[in-house]
Amino acid sequence: MTMPMQPDFTLEDPRPIAAEAPYTFFLPSPEEIAAVGVDDLVKMVFVYGHETEKWSAERMWVTVTQVNGSELQGELGNQPDEPTSPLKLGDPVVFERHHILAIVWDKPENAPPEPQYREYWERCLVDQCVLDGEEPVEYLYREEPDMTQEGDRYPDSGWRIRGRFGDLTDEQLAERTHAYVALGAVLNRDDSWLSWIDAPVGTALWRDFEAGAYAEVAD
Fold first, then answer.
1. Residue 108, SS3 per DSSP
2. Which of 50, 60, 100, 120 has its CA 20 to 30 A from that of 25?
């Protein structure tokens, strides 16, 4: 849900996005969000309600000036990049804690500890049907990484992931399209194989849907 601010824009609630993409979209912890106070800097998504020239939504920073329970007030901390934006630097903004995407603390020494979680940005090759949610993972194997792309800050993990084969012929399987994406993008769709993600090169796994488990097989 979004909270109306003015007739021309709203603030996006990022929680549904985080729920759908838990391995690639990370929010501050509840403890961090509850600790936000005056002079802290918070990032939120401003969604425009009119036809725009460049961006239909912008992530922008707001400096907190007042706190009233779950409702906070602040001043826009940067000039919008969208030419048609009704906002300008320093404009007042009223928001709720659940709108917060990121935090820069005025006094870092008083901030709650940052949550420790693992991110999955290493790349893999996966059937597009898995990413589209059309098929679950059925077969995957890990080979020596050989697809790392120049300029990509994240390396190839070596994982190659196939969607359920069903009754498809070898020719039909060969016609499937593939994507080279972050492991987290696959896990967002199907994390049934997460416990195997650190398995060594040479591992090959076949999914037994009836047993609800993976078994190692000869690659």
1. helix
2. 50
Distance (Å, whole) CA 147 – CA 124: 9
Q: How far is CA 205 from CA 21, 93, 164, 186, 196, in A?
A: 24, 51, 13, 16, 9
Q: Where are the domains of the chain?
A: 2-110, 123-216
Q: Which amino acid is at 203?
A: T
Residues 6+ apart with CB under 8 A from 211: none
Strand partners, 103: 42
Please check whether residue 149 is in contact with residue 157, taking contact to mean a CB–CB distance below 8 angstroms.
Answer: no
Would you give the distance in Å from CA 116 to the centre of its chain? Answer: 16
Distance between CA atoms of residues 178 and 160, nearest Å: 10
17 exposed, middle or buried (CB, 10 Å; 0-12, 13-18, 19+)? Answer: middle
Read off the pLDDT of residues 105-128 as tens digits, 9 standing for 90 and up: 999 999 999 888 899 999 999 999
Tell me the C-alpha to C-alpha distance, in Å, between residue 126 and each of 24, 162, 182. Answer: 16, 6, 10
The one-letter code for the residue type at 97 is R
